[in-house]
Amino acid sequence: MRIGILNEVNDARVALIPDIAKQLINDNNQVFIENDAGNSSFFSDKDYTEAGAKVLTRQQVINQSELLISLHPLAENDLKNVNNNTKLISSYQPFADMSYLEKASSYPVTILSLDMIPRITIAQAMDILSSMASIAGYKAVLLAANYLPRYFPMLTTAAGSIPPAKVLVLGAGVAGLQAIATAKRLGSVVEAFDTRLAAKEEVQSLGAKFVEVEGASDDKSAGGYAVEQTEDYKKRQTVLIQEKAVKSDIIIATAQIRGRKAPLLISKETVEQMKPGSVIVDIAASTGGNCELTQNNKIIQHKGITIIGNSELAATMPMHSSQLYSRNIFNFMKVFIKNGQLNLDLNNEIIKSSCIMLDGKQLYQKK
Ligand code: NAD
Fold first, then answer.
1. What is the reported pLDDT for 224?
2. Which residue, judged by its Cα, is nearest atom 31 of ligand 1?
3. DSSP reduced 3-state for 148
4. Which residue from 95, 120, 195 has its CB within 8 A of the most atoms of ligand 1, so it is best to mutate?
5. How far is the CA of 132 from the centre of ligand 1 (A)?
6. For 131-159, what is each residue's pLDDT tens digit?
7. What is the pTM of this model?
8. Mean pLDDT of the 324-333 span
9. What is the number of helices (H) and of strands (E) in the chain?
10. Is 6 within 8 Å of 18 (Cβ atoms)?
């Protein structure tokens, strides 16, 4: 296979690092990379050349590739230049927005969407959502610590003792659990809340307290994702979160429901009752945010509270996020590329779920 990597637009990450390029080349593939594509992740053109890849212009990469891998969906400008039957791998999120698929259907391309890989045990090593969420959870806590006008850990000093900071984590999925672990390492006292009861044990195993609201909707058939809750549940949840929030110094908000707007968990009133100097990092910002006042890609102050809306924190650690992304992609490609040959078997559960377009024919149907 001729595999191409382009420079990401407005993102420091690169979809394939030199080490993985080398492994693909060893498996009888060719790898083409746009010049400077790895620069912001600290992988130079020389690193790629030494790995056996060819460094080319953007247009040359598009012209010569049978498979294009990227972090963000291929720009529509590039789409019209790809060859017939090109395979595209990225995160297309068709459940959130079908408009890209509709445009792409004018071209005979095949699209494999990484966010559609089922969350089953054998696919764990391919899970880019987990890799990126884990970095985001870690970075959210570091960011909060940066803005917090006080210490995280408990300290006993000659000038008196300092109590530990209190952290509330909303949503104890991959990002939330990493946020808990990071906040614990920094010495704070952590509480976490999630609608999925399965999260309770994971939260407790990290040494945090699980905040529980009785009567959550059953999410067993949602493939590891959360489901929408009843109005009654939401009311009780709001009261309990408000009670916890006003005592917290930091809130890390990570709650998401796939394909829907993020649940609103922190109202303006709650923010106004929080202690001055407290910090909210809302990584659900791009889907509306868990906090009513969150503005996506902005850091705002509201009555002494700092609210950081950022869903792209993984991109702030481009070296490791590119490395993990590349490894996830490599594990995914092993399912359908062997010895340089492509075999897209739609009976394979992983391919069936992730292949949302085959040669211009839309396979994904919105439920
Ligand atoms: P996500 O990003 O979709 O959501 C983040 C968290 O928000 C989830 O834990 C969700 O339950 C929670 N949430 C949603 N609504 C909420 C509300 N109203 N209040 C509080 N919390 C709310 O989820 P994710 O982190 O990508 O994954 C969730 C889970 O999926 C993981 O913890 C894991 O159990 C499972 N998973 C399985 C695999 C696999 O087997 N391959 C891979 C990754 C994740």
1. 67
2. 173
3. coil
4. 195
5. 13
6. 999 999 999 999 999 999 999 999 999 99
7. 0.94
8. 98
9. 12, 19
10. no
